[in-house]
Amino acid sequence: MEHAKAPAGTQAIGRALAVLKLLAERSGELGITRIAEHLGLSPGTAHRIVRALVADGLVAHNPRTDAYYLGAGTILLGQAAQRGFGLDRALPVLEQINAETQESVNLVVREGGESVVMLRVQSTLPLRFEQHPGARFPLYTTASGKAILAYSDDVEDYVAALPRHLRKITARTLGTPAQLATQLEEIRERGYSIDEEENVAGVRCVGAPILDADGRAHAALVIQVPAVRMPARRVRELGARTVTASKEIAQFVPVDRMMSR
Fold first, then answer.
1. Cβ proximity of 86 and 93 under 8 Å
2. Which part of the chain is the IclR-ED domain (predicted)?
């Protein structure tokens, strides 16, 4: 197979990354026409970029459907990244909490103004909230985001830059930056954060920051529970459990790698 030469320059790199992200988000196959439409490219440009990614093993082609999907090379990259982030060592901690509580457990990092699920152990109970690694949400709506913000060195700048009225995700999402600032103070006093159905109706969460040696948050550990299984007493119990587990993870995970702004 002739290797396609990708267009030179940073624009070509950005477009190639956009193709990979698109295929990751769709979790399936996409044809050249749809890739081009999604990314605002001409079909010819999209085809050249995709062929270069196929040549490097990052994208694969299905000749039966003439569509493309993430290739085996991305699996190897993902596995290497997981080892670099220490997620392979964090996973047993999440699995232990899942076994103790039978609830879903996430390890979440910050990317700009969003919290991103990096690792998840799903509850096996019939009533649960379905989610997947890669899911992302505004920081101010989640237990993970608020736990990270409370111990971030740019928290004042983040809060000051928010609009006067925050975008509502559910009826219980915080409405103003002042409400968020109050909650962040409470989190620092308590040690863990609470999401009172602020991101998903019917789901309550507790989270604790994973801190570096200087006491700054780069990630968070979160337990997600349907509200019907989460009375106030259990909020306190699981909140305390996230704190101990986050401290355990911080001992062996290079948390300073885990935040991108």
1. no
2. 73-255
Residue of 48, 186, 195 whose CA lies nearest to 115: 195
Residue with tokens 């789901």, as numbered in its chain:
203
Rounded to 5 degrees, what angle do the CA atoms 47, 48, 54 make? 85
Q: What is the pTM of this model?
A: 0.77
Per-residue pLDDT tens over the stretch 232-245: 999 999 999 999 99
Q: How many helices (H) and strands (E) does the chain have?
A: 9, 9
Residue 95 to residue 160: CA distance in whole angstroms? 37
Q: Around 225, how many Cα atoms within 13 Å sit in the side-chain half-sphere? A: 26
Structure tokens at 141: 């709506």
255 with 211: CB under 8 angstroms? yes
Domains belonging to the chain, first-starting first, are 10-76 (1.10.10.10), 86-260 (3.30.450.40)
DSSP state letter for 257: G
Of 18, 83, 82, 75, whose CA–CA distance to 46 is shortest? 18
Handedness of CA 227, 230, 235, 237 (dihedral sign): negative
CA distance 117 to 222: 10
Q: State the Cα–Cα distance between residues 204 and 197, nearest whole angstrom.
A: 5
Q: What amino acid is encoded at 250 in this protein?
A: A
Determine phi and psi for 102, rounding to 5 degrees. Answer: 65, 20
pLDDT digits (tens, 9 = 90+) for 5-59: 544 568 888 999 999 988 887 777 999 999 999 999 999 999 999 999 999 999 9
Burial of 99: CB neighbours in 10 Å, binned 0-12, 13-18, 19+: exposed
